[in-house]
Amino acid sequence: MNDPSATPPAQPRHVPVMLRRCLDLLAPALAEPGAVVVDATLGLGGHSEALLQTFPAARLVAVDRDPAALELAAKRLAPFGDRATLVHAVYDELPEVLEDLGIPRVQGVLFDLGVSSMQLDEAGRGFAYAQDAPLDMRMNQSSGISAAEVLNTYPPGELVRILRTYGEEKFARKIVDAIVREREREPFTTSARLVELIRDALPQAAKRTGGNPAKRTFQALRIEVNGELAVLERAIPAAVAALAVGGRIAVLSYHSLEDRLVKQVFAAGAANTAPPGLPVVPEQYQPRLKLLTRGAELPTEDEIAENRRAAPARLRGAERIREDMR
Ligand SMILES: C[S@@+](CC[C@H](N)C(=O)[O-])C[C@H]1O[C@@H](n2cnc3c(N)ncnc32)[C@H](O)[C@@H]1O
Protein backbone atom coordinates (compact mmCIF):
# COMPACT_ATOMS: atom_id res chain seq x y z
CA MET A 1 0.00 0.00 0.00
CA ASN A 2 1.19 3.51 -0.73
CA ASP A 3 1.46 5.92 2.15
CA PRO A 4 -1.35 8.40 1.49
CA SER A 5 0.58 11.20 3.18
CA ALA A 6 3.24 10.74 0.49
CA THR A 7 0.77 11.66 -2.23
CA PRO A 8 1.96 14.82 -4.03
CA PRO A 9 -0.22 17.86 -3.31
CA ALA A 10 -1.17 18.48 -6.96
CA GLN A 11 -2.98 15.25 -7.72
CA PRO A 12 -3.13 14.69 -11.45
CA ARG A 13 -6.89 14.67 -11.82
CA HIS A 14 -7.06 13.94 -15.50
CA VAL A 15 -5.39 12.13 -18.36
CA PRO A 16 -3.70 14.38 -20.94
CA VAL A 17 -5.47 14.04 -24.29
CA MET A 18 -3.66 12.27 -27.19
CA LEU A 19 -0.47 12.53 -25.16
CA ARG A 20 1.66 9.97 -27.02
CA ARG A 21 0.82 11.47 -30.41
CA CYS A 22 1.53 15.03 -29.23
CA LEU A 23 4.95 13.95 -27.93
CA ASP A 24 5.76 12.09 -31.15
CA LEU A 25 4.80 15.07 -33.30
CA LEU A 26 7.07 17.42 -31.34
CA ALA A 27 9.92 14.93 -30.72
CA PRO A 28 12.16 15.64 -33.76
CA ALA A 29 12.35 19.31 -32.74
CA LEU A 30 13.09 18.80 -29.05
CA ALA A 31 16.14 16.55 -28.87
CA GLU A 32 18.85 19.23 -29.02
CA PRO A 33 20.17 20.76 -25.78
CA GLY A 34 18.69 24.19 -25.24
CA ALA A 35 15.48 23.45 -27.15
CA VAL A 36 12.56 25.49 -25.84
CA VAL A 37 9.04 24.09 -25.88
CA VAL A 38 5.99 26.24 -25.14
CA ASP A 39 2.87 24.78 -23.56
CA ALA A 40 0.37 27.52 -24.38
CA THR A 41 -2.36 25.91 -22.26
CA LEU A 42 -0.68 24.60 -19.12
CA GLY A 43 -3.88 23.58 -17.29
CA LEU A 44 -2.98 20.98 -14.68
CA GLY A 45 0.39 20.45 -16.32
CA GLY A 46 -0.24 16.95 -17.66
CA HIS A 47 1.23 17.56 -21.11
CA SER A 48 3.94 19.81 -19.66
CA GLU A 49 5.09 17.17 -17.20
CA ALA A 50 5.33 14.59 -19.97
CA LEU A 51 7.26 17.02 -22.20
CA LEU A 52 9.80 17.64 -19.44
CA GLN A 53 10.13 13.91 -18.73
CA THR A 54 10.40 12.88 -22.38
CA PHE A 55 12.79 15.59 -23.57
CA PRO A 56 15.40 15.99 -20.84
CA ALA A 57 17.43 18.50 -22.89
CA ALA A 58 14.46 20.84 -23.34
CA ARG A 59 13.31 23.83 -21.34
CA LEU A 60 9.59 24.53 -20.94
CA VAL A 61 7.76 27.85 -21.02
CA ALA A 62 4.13 27.30 -20.03
CA VAL A 63 1.28 29.78 -20.10
CA ASP A 64 -2.23 29.81 -18.65
CA ARG A 65 -4.75 32.59 -18.12
CA ASP A 66 -6.21 30.83 -15.07
CA PRO A 67 -4.27 31.60 -11.86
CA ALA A 68 -5.75 28.50 -10.16
CA ALA A 69 -4.35 26.24 -12.90
CA LEU A 70 -0.91 27.85 -12.58
CA GLU A 71 -0.88 27.28 -8.85
CA LEU A 72 -1.71 23.58 -9.14
CA ALA A 73 0.64 22.97 -12.06
CA ALA A 74 3.49 24.78 -10.29
CA LYS A 75 3.38 22.14 -7.55
CA ARG A 76 3.31 19.34 -10.07
CA LEU A 77 6.25 20.72 -12.04
CA ALA A 78 8.35 21.80 -9.04
CA PRO A 79 10.64 18.73 -9.35
CA PHE A 80 11.87 20.06 -12.69
CA GLY A 81 13.24 23.23 -11.08
CA ASP A 82 14.29 25.98 -13.48
CA ARG A 83 13.65 23.84 -16.57
CA ALA A 84 10.03 24.99 -16.25
CA THR A 85 9.00 28.65 -16.42
CA LEU A 86 5.30 29.25 -15.77
CA VAL A 87 3.70 32.52 -16.81
CA HIS A 88 0.24 33.97 -16.14
CA ALA A 89 -0.81 35.23 -19.56
CA VAL A 90 -3.36 34.86 -22.31
CA TYR A 91 -1.81 32.80 -25.08
CA ASP A 92 -1.95 35.51 -27.72
CA GLU A 93 0.57 37.35 -25.51
CA LEU A 94 3.18 34.70 -26.34
CA PRO A 95 5.44 37.10 -28.32
CA GLU A 96 5.69 39.44 -25.28
CA VAL A 97 6.17 36.51 -22.88
CA LEU A 98 9.08 35.18 -24.95
CA GLU A 99 10.58 38.62 -25.38
CA ASP A 100 10.52 39.22 -21.61
CA LEU A 101 12.31 35.90 -21.13
CA GLY A 102 14.91 36.77 -23.79
CA ILE A 103 13.90 33.82 -25.99
CA PRO A 104 13.93 34.83 -29.68
CA ARG A 105 12.67 31.55 -31.17
CA VAL A 106 11.29 28.26 -29.88
CA GLN A 107 11.49 24.67 -31.10
CA GLY A 108 8.05 23.44 -30.10
CA VAL A 109 4.57 24.76 -29.24
CA LEU A 110 1.62 22.82 -27.92
CA PHE A 111 -1.96 24.08 -27.59
CA ASP A 112 -4.56 21.94 -25.78
CA LEU A 113 -7.54 24.25 -26.20
CA GLY A 114 -10.66 24.72 -24.17
CA VAL A 115 -11.36 24.24 -20.50
CA SER A 116 -9.41 22.04 -18.12
CA SER A 117 -10.98 19.21 -16.16
CA MET A 118 -10.31 21.24 -13.01
CA GLN A 119 -12.34 24.16 -14.38
CA LEU A 120 -15.15 21.78 -15.35
CA ASP A 121 -15.10 19.87 -12.09
CA GLU A 122 -15.17 22.88 -9.78
CA ALA A 123 -18.81 23.79 -9.58
CA GLY A 124 -18.03 27.34 -8.43
CA ARG A 125 -16.46 28.21 -11.78
CA GLY A 126 -19.84 27.81 -13.51
CA PHE A 127 -18.61 25.91 -16.61
CA ALA A 128 -20.61 22.75 -16.02
CA TYR A 129 -24.28 22.45 -16.89
CA ALA A 130 -24.67 19.31 -14.79
CA GLN A 131 -24.56 21.15 -11.45
CA ASP A 132 -26.18 24.32 -10.18
CA ALA A 133 -23.54 27.03 -9.79
CA PRO A 134 -23.04 30.77 -10.33
CA LEU A 135 -22.96 31.52 -14.06
CA ASP A 136 -19.37 32.76 -14.21
CA MET A 137 -17.29 30.85 -16.83
CA ARG A 138 -14.36 33.27 -16.78
CA MET A 139 -11.06 31.41 -17.05
CA ASN A 140 -9.46 34.32 -15.23
CA GLN A 141 -11.96 35.36 -12.57
CA SER A 142 -10.18 38.63 -11.89
CA SER A 143 -11.11 40.23 -15.22
CA GLY A 144 -13.80 40.39 -17.87
CA ILE A 145 -17.54 39.85 -17.66
CA SER A 146 -19.31 36.73 -16.45
CA ALA A 147 -21.75 34.50 -18.33
CA ALA A 148 -24.57 35.90 -16.17
CA GLU A 149 -23.76 39.44 -17.33
CA VAL A 150 -23.76 38.29 -20.95
CA LEU A 151 -27.17 36.64 -20.49
CA ASN A 152 -28.69 39.52 -18.57
CA THR A 153 -27.39 42.45 -20.62
CA TYR A 154 -26.69 41.52 -24.26
CA PRO A 155 -29.29 42.55 -26.86
CA PRO A 156 -31.36 39.57 -28.06
CA GLY A 157 -29.90 39.68 -31.59
CA GLU A 158 -26.39 39.47 -30.22
CA LEU A 159 -27.32 36.49 -28.03
CA VAL A 160 -28.83 34.70 -31.03
CA ARG A 161 -25.63 35.29 -33.02
CA ILE A 162 -23.49 33.93 -30.18
CA LEU A 163 -25.59 30.80 -29.71
CA ARG A 164 -25.69 30.14 -33.45
CA THR A 165 -22.05 30.84 -34.21
CA TYR A 166 -20.26 29.59 -31.11
CA GLY A 167 -22.72 26.88 -30.11
CA GLU A 168 -23.97 25.85 -33.55
CA GLU A 169 -27.38 25.86 -31.82
CA LYS A 170 -30.24 25.45 -34.30
CA PHE A 171 -32.82 26.63 -31.79
CA ALA A 172 -30.94 29.80 -30.84
CA ARG A 173 -33.92 32.07 -31.49
CA LYS A 174 -36.30 29.98 -29.34
CA ILE A 175 -33.80 29.81 -26.49
CA VAL A 176 -33.04 33.54 -26.63
CA ASP A 177 -36.76 34.44 -26.68
CA ALA A 178 -37.15 32.42 -23.49
CA ILE A 179 -34.02 33.98 -21.93
CA VAL A 180 -35.27 37.49 -22.64
CA ARG A 181 -38.69 36.75 -21.09
CA GLU A 182 -37.08 35.23 -18.03
CA ARG A 183 -34.44 37.90 -17.45
CA GLU A 184 -37.12 40.60 -17.44
CA ARG A 185 -38.81 38.73 -14.61
CA GLU A 186 -35.56 38.16 -12.73
CA PRO A 187 -31.90 38.34 -13.84
CA PHE A 188 -30.00 35.04 -14.18
CA THR A 189 -27.49 34.20 -11.49
CA THR A 190 -27.04 30.42 -11.50
CA SER A 191 -26.88 27.66 -14.07
CA ALA A 192 -29.79 25.39 -13.06
CA ARG A 193 -32.41 27.94 -14.08
CA LEU A 194 -30.79 28.35 -17.50
CA VAL A 195 -30.54 24.59 -18.02
CA GLU A 196 -34.21 24.17 -17.15
CA LEU A 197 -35.22 27.02 -19.44
CA ILE A 198 -33.30 25.50 -22.38
CA ARG A 199 -34.89 22.13 -21.72
CA ASP A 200 -38.34 23.71 -21.81
CA ALA A 201 -37.60 25.83 -24.90
CA LEU A 202 -36.44 22.97 -27.14
CA PRO A 203 -38.85 20.83 -29.12
CA GLN A 204 -39.20 17.22 -27.89
CA ALA A 205 -37.46 15.74 -30.94
CA ALA A 206 -34.35 17.89 -30.39
CA LYS A 207 -34.06 16.63 -26.82
CA ARG A 208 -33.82 13.00 -27.82
CA THR A 209 -30.42 13.36 -29.50
CA GLY A 210 -27.08 15.03 -28.83
CA GLY A 211 -26.71 14.73 -25.04
CA ASN A 212 -27.64 17.49 -22.61
CA PRO A 213 -29.66 20.15 -24.47
CA ALA A 214 -27.79 22.90 -22.59
CA LYS A 215 -24.39 21.79 -23.89
CA ARG A 216 -24.31 24.02 -26.98
CA THR A 217 -25.53 27.13 -25.14
CA PHE A 218 -22.92 26.64 -22.41
CA GLN A 219 -20.17 26.22 -25.00
CA ALA A 220 -21.32 29.40 -26.76
CA LEU A 221 -21.37 31.44 -23.55
CA ARG A 222 -17.95 30.19 -22.52
CA ILE A 223 -16.45 31.13 -25.89
CA GLU A 224 -18.01 34.61 -25.69
CA VAL A 225 -17.04 35.24 -22.05
CA ASN A 226 -13.39 34.35 -22.71
CA GLY A 227 -13.20 35.81 -26.23
CA GLU A 228 -11.81 32.41 -27.18
CA LEU A 229 -11.92 32.54 -30.96
CA ALA A 230 -10.62 36.08 -31.31
CA VAL A 231 -7.69 35.21 -29.06
CA LEU A 232 -6.99 31.97 -30.93
CA GLU A 233 -7.10 33.73 -34.26
CA ARG A 234 -4.19 35.90 -33.12
CA ALA A 235 -2.39 33.21 -31.13
CA ILE A 236 -1.86 30.48 -33.74
CA PRO A 237 -0.11 32.77 -36.29
CA ALA A 238 1.94 34.28 -33.43
CA ALA A 239 3.01 30.80 -32.31
CA VAL A 240 3.98 29.82 -35.87
CA ALA A 241 5.97 33.05 -36.14
CA ALA A 242 7.82 32.19 -32.92
CA LEU A 243 9.00 28.81 -34.26
CA ALA A 244 12.60 28.43 -35.40
CA VAL A 245 13.09 26.64 -38.72
CA GLY A 246 12.69 22.94 -37.89
CA GLY A 247 10.39 23.85 -34.96
CA ARG A 248 7.06 22.10 -34.63
CA ILE A 249 3.56 23.01 -33.45
CA ALA A 250 0.74 20.71 -32.33
CA VAL A 251 -2.80 21.90 -31.63
CA LEU A 252 -5.60 19.95 -29.97
CA SER A 253 -9.05 21.46 -30.67
CA TYR A 254 -12.38 20.44 -29.21
CA HIS A 255 -14.93 21.92 -31.55
CA SER A 256 -15.17 22.61 -35.23
CA LEU A 257 -14.76 26.40 -34.92
CA GLU A 258 -11.38 26.05 -33.25
CA ASP A 259 -10.29 23.30 -35.59
CA ARG A 260 -11.32 25.29 -38.66
CA LEU A 261 -9.24 28.24 -37.54
CA VAL A 262 -6.16 26.07 -36.95
CA LYS A 263 -6.65 24.33 -40.27
CA GLN A 264 -6.82 27.67 -42.11
CA VAL A 265 -3.63 29.04 -40.55
CA PHE A 266 -1.71 25.82 -41.23
CA ALA A 267 -3.05 25.54 -44.78
CA ALA A 268 -2.09 29.14 -45.54
CA GLY A 269 1.43 28.51 -44.21
CA ALA A 270 1.77 25.31 -46.22
CA ALA A 271 0.60 26.88 -49.48
CA ASN A 272 2.82 28.00 -52.29
CA THR A 273 1.76 31.59 -52.92
CA ALA A 274 3.42 32.13 -56.27
CA PRO A 275 1.34 33.68 -59.04
CA PRO A 276 0.27 30.88 -61.37
CA GLY A 277 2.45 30.01 -64.36
CA LEU A 278 5.93 30.60 -62.93
CA PRO A 279 8.28 27.86 -64.16
CA VAL A 280 10.30 27.93 -60.91
CA VAL A 281 8.77 29.04 -57.63
CA PRO A 282 10.98 31.77 -56.13
CA GLU A 283 12.00 31.37 -52.49
CA GLN A 284 9.68 34.09 -51.20
CA TYR A 285 6.61 32.21 -52.46
CA GLN A 286 7.61 28.83 -51.06
CA PRO A 287 5.55 27.47 -48.17
CA ARG A 288 6.93 28.12 -44.70
CA LEU A 289 5.07 25.22 -43.06
CA LYS A 290 4.92 21.50 -43.72
CA LEU A 291 1.79 19.74 -42.48
CA LEU A 292 2.57 16.83 -40.16
CA THR A 293 -0.94 15.42 -39.93
CA ARG A 294 -3.21 14.37 -42.72
CA GLY A 295 -6.33 16.38 -41.97
CA ALA A 296 -7.07 16.29 -38.26
CA GLU A 297 -6.13 13.18 -36.27
CA LEU A 298 -8.66 11.74 -33.82
CA PRO A 299 -8.23 9.92 -30.52
CA THR A 300 -8.47 6.14 -30.64
CA GLU A 301 -11.58 4.35 -29.43
CA ASP A 302 -9.56 2.97 -26.53
CA GLU A 303 -8.60 6.47 -25.44
CA ILE A 304 -12.18 7.67 -25.66
CA ALA A 305 -13.33 4.67 -23.63
CA GLU A 306 -10.83 5.62 -20.90
CA ASN A 307 -11.37 9.37 -21.08
CA ARG A 308 -14.72 10.69 -22.34
CA ARG A 309 -13.34 14.21 -22.53
CA ALA A 310 -10.97 13.13 -25.31
CA ALA A 311 -13.91 12.28 -27.58
CA PRO A 312 -14.21 15.57 -29.51
CA ALA A 313 -10.43 16.10 -29.80
CA ARG A 314 -8.89 16.94 -33.19
CA LEU A 315 -5.10 17.12 -33.47
CA ARG A 316 -3.14 18.97 -36.14
CA GLY A 317 0.60 19.43 -36.41
CA ALA A 318 2.96 21.43 -38.60
CA GLU A 319 6.69 22.07 -38.97
CA ARG A 320 8.31 25.40 -39.78
CA ILE A 321 10.46 24.74 -42.82
CA ARG A 322 11.44 28.22 -43.95
CA GLU A 323 11.92 31.75 -42.66
CA ASP A 324 9.12 34.13 -43.55
CA MET A 325 10.21 36.06 -46.60
CA ARG A 326 6.84 37.23 -47.78
C1 LIG B 1 -7.63 21.64 -21.74
S1 LIG B 1 -6.80 22.56 -20.54
C2 LIG B 1 -5.12 22.06 -20.69
C3 LIG B 1 -4.81 20.78 -19.98
C4 LIG B 1 -3.33 20.45 -20.02
N1 LIG B 1 -2.87 20.16 -21.35
C5 LIG B 1 -3.00 19.32 -19.11
O1 LIG B 1 -2.55 18.26 -19.59
O2 LIG B 1 -3.18 19.46 -17.89
C6 LIG B 1 -6.78 24.15 -21.23
C7 LIG B 1 -6.14 25.23 -20.36
O3 LIG B 1 -5.89 26.33 -21.20
C8 LIG B 1 -6.21 27.50 -20.51
N2 LIG B 1 -6.58 28.50 -21.50
C9 LIG B 1 -7.67 28.50 -22.29
N3 LIG B 1 -7.65 29.58 -23.08
C10 LIG B 1 -6.50 30.24 -22.81
C11 LIG B 1 -5.91 31.43 -23.31
N4 LIG B 1 -6.52 32.14 -24.24
N5 LIG B 1 -4.72 31.81 -22.81
C12 LIG B 1 -4.10 31.08 -21.86
N6 LIG B 1 -4.62 29.96 -21.33
C13 LIG B 1 -5.81 29.55 -21.80
C14 LIG B 1 -7.35 27.15 -19.59
O4 LIG B 1 -7.37 28.04 -18.48
C15 LIG B 1 -7.02 25.71 -19.22
O5 LIG B 1 -6.31 25.66 -18.01
Automatic annotation (TrEMBL):
GO terms for biological process: rRNA base methylation. GO terms for molecular function: rRNA (cytosine-N4-)-methyltransferase activity. Its main location: cytoplasm. It is an enzyme of class 2 (transferase). SUPFAM superfamilies: Putative methyltransferase TM0872, insert domain, S-adenosyl-L-methionine-dependent methyltransferases. Its EC number is 2.1.1.199. The keyword S-adenosyl-L-methionine applies. Keywords: Cytoplasm, Methyltransferase, rRNA processing, S-adenosyl-L-methionine, Transferase. It holds the Pfam family Methyltransf_5. It catalyses: cytidine(1402) in 16S rRNA + S-adenosyl-L-methionine = N(4)-methylcytidine(1402) in 16S rRNA + S-adenosyl-L-homocysteine + H(+). Specifically methylates the N4 position of cytidine in position 1402 (C1402) of 16S rRNA. This is Ribosomal RNA small subunit methyltransferase H.
